[in-house]
């Protein structure tokens, strides 16, 4: 009986395994449900560099018109308003990783079996790396300076940040009773998102539209979510449960998938990837705090190099030691960052709170 065999770096095998890897990585990432190409997506995908040469994507935002307009038969000619545009640069670079078998005898595997094991290992590595980069970026976690963990570009400190009890810095947060996460802080973040101004001009954050409804997304660390759950005061955790994802919301958009609940139009997601605070003078991590993030539309940008996408990774195989060991490499040229225009974080607000003094 004839059997189909795909040799090392066989063109069909490469296509098959790179497709499997890309599909599995996106399904395994936390941020995968928030990706999209429209400007209503929390993480917007830009494909300019996916079509040709270049090491960066220039992301452009059109500003809002602020002129008074002309009443009645007043002369409009000569009183037009120029369009204003702001830009942000998304740098892309190559990131790769690989596995290598110990050998046929020690592994008791043949090379094509090892492909599956390699794919699963690289899937987990890539999913972890992309999620880590996403949260380091949107939280402004400048304590991480290795760009391999920050989407291939430096992290920028948050320009929109809220702390309880008017604490001036992350390191000043040390009171579990008064400086932990609360619904009042969520209310403050939503109010800031809706009323933000710059130089006297309104520049509100833009929410995500779900079936015509305005929605925000907030990412909380489990310690911050626990603070909400254990708050027994009136109008705290029970309010979230009353406004849980009953009805059709959970089916209309992936942003509701796996959510804790919804409060004041904010879909709450719990994840341990929410980073710690950052010391204001040393730049080191502050272990007793966590940085929740309220996000609107276009909070982050994701771009790829030519020939790459979230559906297309590199997949290369190589035999070593006279064919006894199989190495598998998976790589991608990409960049990921939070969006910032005119020196302001465009669609993120950080909420630093006390989390747990033993959190390390």
| DSSP summary: helix tally | 7
Which consecutive residue ranges, at least 5 long each, have pLDDT under 50? 1-5
Intertermini distance: 58 Å
- Give the overall form: globular
Strand content: 25-35%
The succession of helices and strands, N to C, reads HEEEEEHHEHEEEEHHHEEEEEEEEEE
Radius of gyration: 24 Å
Explained architecture:
With 360 residues, the protein is α+β, with helices and mostly antiparallel strands. It has two domains: 11-65 and 84-139 and 300-338, Major capsid protein gp5 fold (2-Layer Sandwich); 158-299 and 341-354, no CATH class. 22% of the residues lie in helices and 28% in strands. It is built from seven helices and 20 strands. The protein has helices spanning 11-28, 104-107, 111-138, 183-195, 222-229, 237-242, 249-252, and strands at residues 35-36, 43-46, 56-62, 85-91, 93-100, 161-162, 197-198, 201-202, 208-210, 213-220, 261-263, 266-270, 276-278, 285-295, 300-304, 316-320, 325-338, 340-341, 344-345, 348-354. Strands 6, 9, 10, 11, 12, 13, 14 and 20 form an eight-stranded mixed β-sheet that branches. Strands 1, 2, 5, 15, 16 and 17 form a six-stranded mixed β-sheet that branches. Residues 1-5 have low confidence and may be disordered.
């Amino acid at each position: 009986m004839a059997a189909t065999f795909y040799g090392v770096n066989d063109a069909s095998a490469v296509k098959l395994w790179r497709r499997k890897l890309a599909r599995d990585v996106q399904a395994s990432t936390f941020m995968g449900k928030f990706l999209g190409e429209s400007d209503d997506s929390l993480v917007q995908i830009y494909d300019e560099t996916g079509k040709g040469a270049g090491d960066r994507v220039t992301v452009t935002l059109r500003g809002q018109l602020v002129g008074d307009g002309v009443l009645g038969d007043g002369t409009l000619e000569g009183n037009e308003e120029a369009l204003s545009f702001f830009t942000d640069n998304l740098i892309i670079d190559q990131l790769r990783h690989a596995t290598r078998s110990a050998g046929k005898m020690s592994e008791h595997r043949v090379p094509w079996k090892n492909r599956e094991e390699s794919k699963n290992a690289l899937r987990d590595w890539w999913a972890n790396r992309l999620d880590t980069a996403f949260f380091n970026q949107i939280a402004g976690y400048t304590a991480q300076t290795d760009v391999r963990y920050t989407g291939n570009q430096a992290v920028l400190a948050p320009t929109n940040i809220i702390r309880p009890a008017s604490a001036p810095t992350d390191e000043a947060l040390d009171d579990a009773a008064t400086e932990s996460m609360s619904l009042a802080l969520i209310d403050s973040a939503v109010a800031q998102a809706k009323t933000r101004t710059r130089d006297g001009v309104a520049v509100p954050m833009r929410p995500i539209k779900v079936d015509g409804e305005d929605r925000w997304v907030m990412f909380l660390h489990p310690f911050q979510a626990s603070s909400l759950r254990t708050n027994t005061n009136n109008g705290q955790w029970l309010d979230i449960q009353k406004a849980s994802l009953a009805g059709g919301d959970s089916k209309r958009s992936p942003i509701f998938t796996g959510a804790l609940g919804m409060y004041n139009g904010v879909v709450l997601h719990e994840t341990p990837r929410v980073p710690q605070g950052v010391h204001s003078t040393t730049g080191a991590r502050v272990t007793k705090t966590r940085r929740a993030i309220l996000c609107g539309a276009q909070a982050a940008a994701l771009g790829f190099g030519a020939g790459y996408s979230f559906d297309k990774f590199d997949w290369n195989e190589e035999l070593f030691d006279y064919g006894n060991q199989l190495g598998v490499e998976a790589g991608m040229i990409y960049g990921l960052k939070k969006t910032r225009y005119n020196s302001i974080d465009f669609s993120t607000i950080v909420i630093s709170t006390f989390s747990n003094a033993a959190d390390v």
